[in-house]
Design a protein that fits this description.
Elements: E1 3-5, E2 12-14, E3 17-19, H1 28-40, E4 45-47, H2 55-62, E5 71-76, H3 81-95, E6 100-105, H4 120-129, E7 133-139, H5 143-152, E8 157-161, H6 168-180, E9 183-187, H7 198-205, E10 214-216, H8 220-227, H9 238-248
Parallel strand pairs: 3-4, 3-10, 4-5, 5-6, 6-7, 7-8, 8-9
Antiparallel strand pairs: 1-2
């Protein structure tokens, strides 16, 4: 499995990453077993959020005593400084950690900036200065906002939907992030369930050596599909290329 470097963050991780939204649907015991198996299989980057109910708590249980061996990304949907600090304190407690590697504004509808009157970006800078977070990130679902984030020079990572069903504008966004040193993290690499072949999804993603996809994983069988790629991504061969082209039409 290729080791990617996440933009200017300096984070180096296998390209396969773990999306922890689905583990809120399973028990603590099942989630811990899944997360620890992911680590044993080679995954090192784990993405969660304050809004994913008890997902952060389950990561905290799974990685107790081994925090420095994984990268944890979380998110806040706060729109006020008061809610930002409440969410961050809660996330640190639930994750059982003193810091979060990548802390992201979640589903941004605008690009927070210093001096914009909201105080939101200043919260990120203060949290980073205090060592509570290591890198400032953003997630978005609107292309216009995502481009503004990527072009702003303010964010170290950007998480956005990307898959082989994406269009040329999404590909342009990925390339812009690469040019600007912004770590692009792929969410919805299976297009919300529209894509059913994991080998085709991973083979496509392998064409973007700077992009880690966070696969949403709930079941051991799903995890094993992705871990089977750790020894090498499926080749984007003629059969998969033709299949992808049919899916796009």
């Amino acid at each position: 499995m290729r080791i990617i470097e996440l933009g200017i963050t300096g984070i180096r991780t296998p390209q396969n990453a773990f999306g922890a939204l689905p583990i809120q649907r399973v028990s603590d015991q099942e989630a811990v077993a899944l997360l620890q198996r992911a680590f044993e299989g080679g995954m090192r980057y784990f993405d969660t959020a304050r809004s994913y109910s008890d997902s952060e708590h389950k990561l905290g249980l799974a990685f107790a005593g081994m925090r420095e061996r994984v990268f944890i990304a979380s998110k806040t949907m706060a729109a006020t400084p008061e809610d930002f600090w409440r969410d961050l304190r809660t996330s640190l407690q639930e994750l059982d950690t003193s810091y979060i590697d990548v802390y992201q504004f979640h589903m941004m509808k605008q690009c927070w900036r210093p001096g914009d009157g909201t105080g939101m970006y200043e919260c990120m800078m203060q949290a980073k200065g205090q060592g509570l977070i290591r890198h400032i990130g953003a997630t978005a679902h609107l292309l216009s906002v995502a481009f503004e984030i990527a072009e702003s020079g303010l964010y170290e990572t950007l998480q956005f939907p990307f898959s082989y069903l994406s269009g040329p504008e999404e590909e342009r966004l990925v390339n812009l992030c690469a040019d600007r040193g912004v770590g692009f993290v792929c969410m919805k690499g299976m297009a919300g369930g529209l894509i059913t072949r994991s080998d085709a999804a991973m083979a496509f993603m392998d064409q973007y050596p700077q992009v880690p996809p966070i696969w949403g994983i709930q079941r051991p069988s799903e995890l094993e599909e992705w871990l089977s790629c750790m020894d090498g991504a499926p080749e984007f061969d003629e059969e998969i290329r033709a299949f992808v082209e049919r899916e796009r039409t």
